[in-house]
Automatic annotation (TrEMBL):
Gene3D superfamilies: NAD(P)-binding Rossmann-like Domain. It holds the Pfam family adh_short. It comes from Stenotrophomonas rhizophila. This is Short-chain dehydrogenase. The lineage of its organism: Bacteria, Pseudomonadati, Pseudomonadota, Gammaproteobacteria, Lysobacterales. Coiled coil: none annotated. It comes from the Bacteria. SUPFAM superfamilies: NAD(P)-binding Rossmann-fold domains (SSF51735). InterPro entries: NAD(P)-bd_dom_sf (IPR036291), SDR_fam (IPR002347).
């Protein structure tokens, strides 16, 4: 197992929400974390209904450092291949290797879930660009650094494929992430790099809180995960001496949490939504 003081991670889409939570959780392990995203000024993004939401890559990087790691904010437009290439060239120059890549960035829209889909804005198709294509490009440029580390982990943040609460483009992107992890594993396995697709549950994010306001009981009623829970799951996968047995699989975060004996907030352990939204494709499932 690589010592945590030497751990180097990249988290995309880490200005806020799940990405930031994962970054901070890895920071608590002493990792150097490259916090990647577009938001450099807090409150410059808005939630559904037009409410500004907090969070920026600089603020997230500061929290990583405060947690005990070394947070490095990197402004990067993940729809731009040149920006992605420059990110990993910087990491190569600064560290020479990479242990963990978390592909989390996504293009989300306030009207996702509108039916029929052809009455929603056509721009929703860009979910496939920042949500799928960018992660193929990021992993392409990250791969030599992961191999150079001697042991690596790529995590695609996906979601239950049969939830049917978002736009079709969203599910196309998520299904693609599951397949990418399976395909990457063929080349990565002989080089001691694992690639997995991870299905979190519903997350209590800043954007969601801004949308619901004082109705916090909604979060408790839905059993939402904190933003840091999946970071603990990823850390446990990294610590697992049998990590390579998971490669190529689509894994449910709550099920991994149970496997590794993890909890989230005090008195709360997230539950798998397999029963409600179905399992991963049998070819990718651990069951």
């Amino acid at each position: 197992m690589t010592e945590t003081k030497k751990l180097v991670a990249v988290i995309t889409g880490a200005s806020r929400g799940l990405g930031k939570g994962i970054a901070v959780e890895l920071g608590a392990r002493g990792a150097t974390v490259y916090v990647v995203g577009r938001t450099t000024i807090g409150m410059s993004q808005v939630s559904a209904g037009g409410r500004p939401v907090p969070g920026s890559i600089d603020e997230a990087a500061e929290q990583v450092t405060a947690a005990g790691g070394h947070g490095i904010a990197v402004a990067c437009d993940l729809s731009n291949d040149n920006d992605i290439q420059a990110l990993f060239e910087r990491i190569k120059a600064e560290t020479g290797y990479l242990n963990i890549l978390v592909n989390n960035a996504a293009s989300l829209h306030d009207e996702m879930g509108k039916r029929p889909f052809w009455e929603a804005p056509v721009k929703f198709a860009d979910i496939i660009d920042v949500g799928l294509r960018c992660h193929q490009v990021a992993t392409y440029y990250a791969a030599p650094l992961l191999v150079a580390a001697g042991r690596g982990l790529v995590v695609n943040i996906s979601f239950y494929s049969n939830a049917k609460i978002h736009d079709p483009a969203y599910y196309a992107a998520k299904a693609g992430l599951d397949q990418l992890a399976a395909s990457w594993s063929e080349d990565f396995t002989p080089r001691n790099v694992a690639a997995i697709s991870l299905w979190p549950g519903f997350i209590r994010t800043e954007r969601g809180e801004a949308m619901l306001g004082e109705k916090t009981e909604v979060f408790e009623g839905m059993g939402m995960e904190s933003t840091r829970y999946e970071g603990r799951v990823i850390g446990a996968v990294w610590d697992d001496s049998d990590m390579m047995t998971l490669t190529g699989k689509t894994l449910i975060g709550a099920e991994l949490g149970e496997r590794y004996g993890l909890s989230d907030l005090p008195g709360f352990s997230p539950k798998s939504l397999r029963e409600f939204y179905g399992p991963p494709h049998p070819r990718f499932d651990l069951d």
